[in-house]
Design a protein that fits this description.
248 residues, alpha/beta, Spore Coat Polysaccharide Biosynthesis Protein SpsA, Chain A, 7-stranded mixed sheet, 8 helices, 20% strand, globular, binds cytidine-5'-triphosphate, binds magnesium ion, isoprene biosynthesis, IspD/TarI_cytidylyltransf_bact, IspD/TarI, EC 2.7.7.60, 2-C-methyl-D-erythritol 4-phosphate cytidylyltransferase activity
Length: 248
């Protein structure tokens, strides 16, 4: 059985809306709902566990109650940090679950294909974290803002969610993080601290985390692009006209 924990208890501060960004409208529905619906369309997913701000629990219960097409779900209280929200979710996961995925509620553009690939890899390796190769050159800088070194881009990947694990692996990682008072930014970082290796699977450049208003504009475009199935990408007619004339 595969359960998915959705940390959704953030404040959305960088979004600057004055309310939790997961309530923002995206293609006609709240971001949280778009995320849950995509997972609900996956045959490999059995249960959704959503960690929410206690003050938002009632509204989220009502919204989910009105939404057809969701897989069986549980709503739990989130914590003051993302990691604590995930932990609370983990405590509520069904005892029958042997695989647990964690996915940011604020990543509504996740595809069913990537979800399936993560689940398949967890079955093989015990862990699977989706990621994409970094496109920009990245730099490590010193305190004065000067470039200290430029890591080899071929070895750099940007980590996304979902991140999936055999349940006992994730449970052990949370236990150790708690014992050591360690706060990580994602599940991979706390699992690696237990000495286990974590396998990467190819994510998707579309799978952005809605963090700032610009991300929301991009998400709207990507959603309508997906609905249209194929938006033809073509050379600018200005260029092709000139090339056509040159070629003649
Ligand atoms: N999250 C959570 N509990 C927290 C903090 C974050 O469940 N205490 C969730 C968010 O709701 C989001 C995901 O973790 O779905 C990723 O976090 P982030 O993008 O940082 O969202 P926010 O914390 O809401 O945004 P910000 O950091 O700008 O305030
Ligand atoms: Mg945050």
């Amino acid at each position: 059985m595969v359960s998915v924990i959705f940390p959704a208890a953030g404040q959305g501060r960088r979004m600057g809306l004055g309310f939790n960004k997961i309530f923002t409208e995206l293609a006609g529905k709240p971001i949280l709902i778009q995320t849950l619906l995509t997972f609900s369309r996956c045959d490999c997913i059995d249960e959704l566990v959503i960690a929410v701000d206690v003050n938002e629990m009632d509204i989220i219960k009502k919204v989910l109650g009105r939404m057809p097409g969701l897989k069986p779900y549980k709503i739990v209280a989130g914590g003051s940090e993302r990691q604590y929200s995930v932990y609370n979710g983990l405590m509520a996961v069904s005892p029958e679950a042997d695989i647990v995925l964690v996915h940011d509620a604020a990543r509504p553009l996740i595809s069913e294909r990537v979800i399936q690939n993560v689940v398949d890899e967890v079955m093989l390796s015990g862990s699977a974290v989706c990621a994409v190769p970094v496109k920009d050159t990245t730099a490590v800088i010193d305190e004065m803002g000067f470039i200290e070194k430029v890591p080899d881009r071929d070895k750099l990947w940007a980590i996304q969610t979902p991140q999936g694990f055999r349940k006992e692996i994730l449970a052990q990682a949370h236990q150790k993080a708690q014992e050591d008072d360690f706060l990580g930014t994602d599940e991979a970082s706390i699992v690696r601290r237990t000495g286990r290796s974590v396998k990467l699977v190819m994510g998707d450049y579309d799978n952005i985390k809605i963090t700032t208003p610009t991300d929301l504009f991009m998400a709207e475009m990507l959603f309508s692009h997906k609905a249209a199935k194929h938006v033809k990408i073509k050379m600018s007619s200005l260029i092709s006209d000139i090339l056509g004339k040159v070629q003649k």
